[in-house]
Amino acid sequence: MRVTILGSGSEGNALFFESGTTSVLVDAGLSHRELVQRFAAVGRETPNDVSALIVTHSHGDHAAHASVCATRLRCPVHASEETMPSLRLRRSVRTEPFSAGRQFRIGEITIHSVRLPHDAPQVALVFETKETAIGLVTDLGHVPRGLPRFLGECETLLLESNHDSDMLASGPYPTVLKRRVGGSLGHLSNAQAGDLLAYLPQVPKRVVLMHLSQTNNAPQLAKSSAEAALGHGRTQLLVAHQRQPLSLGAIRDTQLRLAL
Predict the structure, then answer these.
(1) Tens of pLDDT along 28-79?
(2) How many CB atoms lie within 10 A of CB 69?
(3) Which of 57, 200, 231 has the alpha carbon at shortest distance from 141?
(4) 14-19 vs 104-106, strand pairing mode
(5) CA 170 from centroid of its chain's CA atoms
(6) Domains assigned to the chain
């Protein structure tokens, strides 16, 4: 399975998953015009045969452009039953609600979902094919029981590492926003992300740190926390950026290139 992280952060989130003839856009926090530019930045044309758009939750940095993107890409929108009514989609857009906690299938990809603690209904997703499993976990204020087990079979994990707690506490955000971001329904800190990694039943072959705050975090701080939790082993550790797309090939292909 191939993944392209088109943008990750408070300015807009979008990811593209591909397996065989199936392609899924996850979140539409970037405009269609911006998607075209991001695909061009990785040397690709914008796909015109997208199987579906999945929206993880209704906040604008994940859902603001869902209606336009679904219309332009001519694909249905999948979202949880709690999220779908908040998306304000055009009547012409086909909707496919799913129940959080249950799995569903889009072409060659099986998607598993579980609820996450956030200040809007939110889900973690695992994208599974015959070859691999990739987990996506962002926008959660704490790690709920059962989440490490839910992610236990993932070879690649896309995991929020939003803020450094000290930087958030001393930073420029107003007090109410600091409490929201650092609260139990906010976003994962570097330390919380590290704790989740430490409790996984098995270590992923690749971890991508997601949704880093440009104000209250630094890539090296996030990586250091994750490296400590992973034990400085063989896991490939990457950081996703807000404006710079990141293409992830099959993990076995990546390991082969590293070996060569």
Answers:
(1) 999 999 999 999 999 999 998 999 999 999 999 999 999 999 999 999 999 9
(2) 25
(3) 57
(4) unpaired
(5) 27
(6) 2-259 (3.60.15.10)
Please state the pTM of the whole predicted model: 0.95
Q: What are the φ/ψ torsions at residue 78 (nearest 5 degrees)? A: -105, 130
What does the pLDDT read at residue 251?
A: 66
Distances (CA, A) of 22 to 25, 75, 162: 10, 12, 30
Length of the chain: 260
* CA dist., res. 179 & res. 174, Å (int): 9
With the CA atoms of 201, 202, 206 and 209 taken in that order, what torsion angle do they form, in degrees rounded to the nearest 10? Answer: 20
- For residue range 216-228, what is the model confidence (pLDDT) as tens digits? 999 999 999 999 9
d(CA 219, CA 213): 9
- Angle at alpha carbon of residue 203, lines to 199 and 209, rounded to 5°: 85
Per-residue DSSP letter, 195 = H
End-to-end CA distance of the chain: 21
Q: Is 41 helix (H, G, I), strand (E, B) or coil?
A: helix
How many CB atoms sit inside 10 A of residue 107's CB?
14
3-state secondary structure of 165: helix
- The β-bridge partners of 126 are 112, 135
